[in-house]
Every structure is written in structure tokens, then in C-alpha cells.
Amino acid sequence: MKYRTLLMSLSLLVFGLFCLSLVVGRDPLPIWQAANEVFTDHSSVFAIILTEIRLPRTLIALLAGATLGLGGAAMQGLLRNPLASPDLIGSSSGAALCAVIVLYFGWQNVSLQMLPLSAMLGSLVATALVFALAGRDASITTLILAGVAVNALATSAMSLLLNLAPSPYAMRELVLWTMGDITDRSMDDFWLMLPFTLIGWALMLGVGKQLNALTLGEETAASLGVNPSWIRWRIFIAIAFAVGATVATTGMIGFIGLVVPHLLRPLVNYEPGRLLPAAALGGAAMLLAADIGVRLIPTDAAIKVGVLTALVGAPFFLYLILRNRKEHL
Fold this sequence. Notes:
single chain, 329 residues, mainly alpha, 0% strand
């Protein structure tokens, strides 16, 4: 498949899922009537459902999915490691821990920016800690072990906070948040998430060619004018902004950054630079589809979208491990 055709196909898929997300639910929304009433009778039930419930949820799914797909592709290209992703090397868990701390102590009431800023700081610190533990020339196994260690540390700290929650209601809210969810989000959440996410995306502009050069090895890339240390920290900071803002808004939604780049990599001839925009579109499509899915699954209690992506992603991760094991036999 030609690269332009792939991007066009993914764009059309995202657009179709975006429109479908506005319509589909336990009770389908007559979209044209709702859109008309937004301008003529903005206090009508359909107009309120569209602008206060469906539109924020869909926009956040679009932005968060694109961020997770892009972050996974960037991490895999940087590390030349097909098992790397923001949630596997500590970025997501670090962001989640700092966000839970803010929620636990109620510091989000001090400033609206406190939650995303703390999540971004946690993401950056956790990622830096993983690479400090693993070392500069770490193997895939060492890197994954370091990521598992940091994830375990962050998870245990979150468990401690949950155990010390002042009330069962507070504990339930923290637990549900860590599952990953985009229900009950408003346009205020979207507008707060947007600038930090765009900063992260902007930092990733132009890194495609440098990631392509890194596939030849750091020494060869350096001879071509690439500074491996600079590109590493540029991507770390970019992911801290984008993934931190995403986790602060949606909670922990895993495996998109792992699954999507793997599915699309063969279609871009295994070029890390070309994979970045394709993975962003693919991530947006996957999260939009997952969010539509949780609305349609007939359960009494709504399934969290992070639970559904984990149910899809965990078996895929096991498949990757088994495939890599066979390749090294």
C-alpha cells in the first residue's frame, strides 16, 4: 500500500469513527436534529447531549488515542525496541501516580493546571528513571525489567494512597480513574488537555528523519549529524507533555501505544519516521472504536474504555513475546 493511500485511508477511518461516536450510544442521537438545535435551541435535550456529552467525549478520545499511538511509535523508533511504549517504560504510571497524589490531597482545587502539570512531571521523572536504571546501552530485556520495576513502584505507591483514602467514595473514584475512562468529561477538560498535548506533538515534528538514521545505530547516526542524546531527551519531554496531559484527563489507558505501531509498521516499510503520523491516526481510530464499543456492550455497569483496550492489548502483547521467543530459538 502506498504511504499516501495509507494515510488517506486512516484519515477517512478516523473521520467515520468520529462521526459515528457522536451518534452511537445506548440511545442513538439524531445528529442532524441535534446539530440544528445547537444553533436554534441550545437548551434542548438533543443539543445538550451533543455539546455537553458526546462532543467532549469524542474529541478527547481523538486526541488521547492519537497521543498514545504517536508516543508508542516514537518510543519504539527511539529505542529500536518493538516492545517499548509509554505505558511499558513507566511514562503512563509515573503520570498516573502524580495525578493520583494531586487528586488524593485535593490540590486540583488550587489550580486547574495542577493536575496536568503534575502528570507531565511524573511522566518525565518515571521515564528518566527507567533509562537511568537500564543504562545507556541497555538491552531489550534490561529496559523492560527497568520499566517493570518503575511501574511496580508507581503501582504500589498508588495502592498505598488507595488504602489510605479517607472514605470508600474517594477510594472508588481513584480506582475508577486508574482504569482509564472518558465518560463524564466536559469541554473544559478538552481545552485544558489541548495546549499541553499540542506542545508534545510540536516537539515531535521533524524527528522522523533522525529516527530513521538511528535504525543504523547511534554511531552511524552521529556521523550523519544526529545527536542521539538530544533526540532522546526531546522525545522524553514531548511524551511527558502529551502523555502526561492525556493520563491526567483520561486515566490510564494502556496498550494503544504498543498495538497500533505493530499493526502499521509493515505498511510503512518499517520506517520509524513514516510510522509516526500513521500511528497517530491509528491510535485515534483504536480509541474511538473502543469508546464506541463500551457504549454498545450490554452491561448494567458501563465498562471503562481502559479495561477494553487492555482486554485487546494484553493477548497481543503475549503474542509478541511468543513470536520473539520463536525468532530467537
